[in-house]
Design a protein that fits this description.
By secondary structure, the protein is an alpha/beta fold. The protein has six helices and eight strands. It binds 5-O-phosphono-beta-D-ribofuranosylamine (GRF).
């Protein structure tokens, strides 16, 4: 099974041809603030037996966020950690770490998590905190990436999955996918085109990040390559 189909504009340094199998399924904790369509896409990839992983828990920070219903529909536990109730970002991150530990998740998958994270979370999961952003980083970091890309008149936009570092929307890039920007595009139209690519690259990026982290065990022999 191909990791990604060949019809997208996909930029990644070294894509393996097949989805990797790991000694154990990756244990994901998904952090989301909004609709949760990326959560659904990751779950669908797991369901198709592509991404070798389980979603252990969904953490959300906005009561009533759409992601809650999606998690319920997928049969996934969800935990509300409302950032408004914490004295600091570090305090919230400590609770995130505790919740991930409770649900035995060790990959932190930020899927529309609209909070800045701190060194506390990043250091707890070295190179295992990932984020998706709706632009070709380093262009247009921040919360209005799609609007800014349109306003700038770029002809190519896209999305990026990257390792999370302390600066917002920075960190080593794992995969990018590009999409065309058309003159008549609205923000909604461009966003939808970008999101279609997000759903494809996020599962692949998680697999690649895990491959990079080495503990890969050959699916056929059970031995390390
Ligand atoms: C995505 O476009 C992602 O790039 C950005 O937030 C959005 C989340 O969408 N960081 P959803 O909640 O997964 O539908």
């Amino acid at each position: 099974m191909a990791l990604v189909s060949p019809d997208s504009v996909l930029v990644s340094p070294s894509l393996p041809s097949c989805w990797p199998r790991f000694s154990q399924p990756l244990k994901l904790g998904v952090l989301a603030s909004g609709r949760g369509t990326n959560l659904e896409a990751i779950a669908a990839s797991i369901q198709r037996q592509e991404l070798h992983a389980t979603i252990q828990v969904v953490i959300y920070n906005n009561p009533g966020a759409g992601v809650v219903d999606r998690a319920r529909g997928l049969g996934l536990p969800s935990v509300l950690l409302n950032h408004r109730h914490y004295p600091s970002r570090e305090a919230l991150d400590l609770d995130i770490i505790q919740t991930l530990a409770t649900y035995q998740a060790n990959w932190v998958i930020m899927a529309g998590w609209m909070r800045c994270v701190t060194q506390v979370l990043i250091e707890a999961f070295p190179r295992q905190v990932l984020n998706i952003h709706p632009s070709l980083l380093p262009s247009f970091p921040g919360t209005h990436a799609v609007d800014q890309a349109l306003a700038a008149g770029v002809k190519l936009s896209g999305c990026t999955v990257h390792h999370v570092e302390i600066q917002v929307d920075r960190g080593p890039i794992i995969i990018q996918a590009g999409v065309p920007v058309y003159p008549q595009d609205s923000v909604a139209a461009l966003q939808a085109r970008i999101q279609a690519q997000e759903y494809r690259i996020y599962p692949a990026a998680i697999a690649l990040a895990a491959l990079d982290r080495a503990n890969l065990v050959d699916g056929k022999t059970g031995k390390r390559p």
